[in-house]
Design a protein that fits this description.
The chain has about 110 residues and is an alpha+beta fold. The chain has one domain: Roll (Ubiquitin-like (UB roll)), CATH 3.10.20. It is built from three helices and five strands; from the N terminus they run ββαβααββ. Strands 2-1-5 form a three-stranded mixed sheet, with helices on one face. A two-stranded antiparallel ribbon has the order 3-4. β1 and β2 form a beta hairpin. The relative contact order is 0.29. The structure holds FE2/S2 (inorganic) cluster.
Length: about 110
């Protein structure tokens, strides 16, 4: 099962087993990862599940779909490099070793 590392804004890290979670958001919710409220539960309706991917991982994963892109843009006014909604990142074996950063704010 893939292991995913969540890095908080203060640099603290948690390495979590994805198990049978469907998405990265589900991994975070199951383990009470801080600063990722994911208020809509993955319905692509809240943009409170934002994470930042390093460039190498951003290039390796399927890109954000138009609805995901628009949701982030509506929230922030633009889409920062590597910014994703983790409810839209499906867990696969290919995610093993993923390190993602949680932004200081979901606003
Ligand atoms: S959990 Fe609401 S958009 Fe991802």
């Amino acid at each position: 099962m893939p292991q995913i590392t969540f890095v908080q804004p203060d640099g603290s890290q948690r390495v979590l087993e994805a198990g049978d979670a469907a998405t990265v958001m589900h991994v975070a919710i199951r383990h009470d990862v801080a600063l990722l409220p994911a208020e809509c539960g993955g319905q692509l309706a809240c943009a409170t599940c934002m994470v930042d991917l390093p460039a190498d991982w951003a290039a390796r994963l399927p890109p954000a779909g138009p609805d995901e892109h628009d949701m982030i843009e509506d929230r922030l006014g633009s889409v920062p490099e590597g910014r994703r909604l983790c409810c839209q990142i499906a867990v696969t074996a290919a995610l093993d070793g993923l390190v993602l950063r949680i932004p200081p704010s979901q606003d």
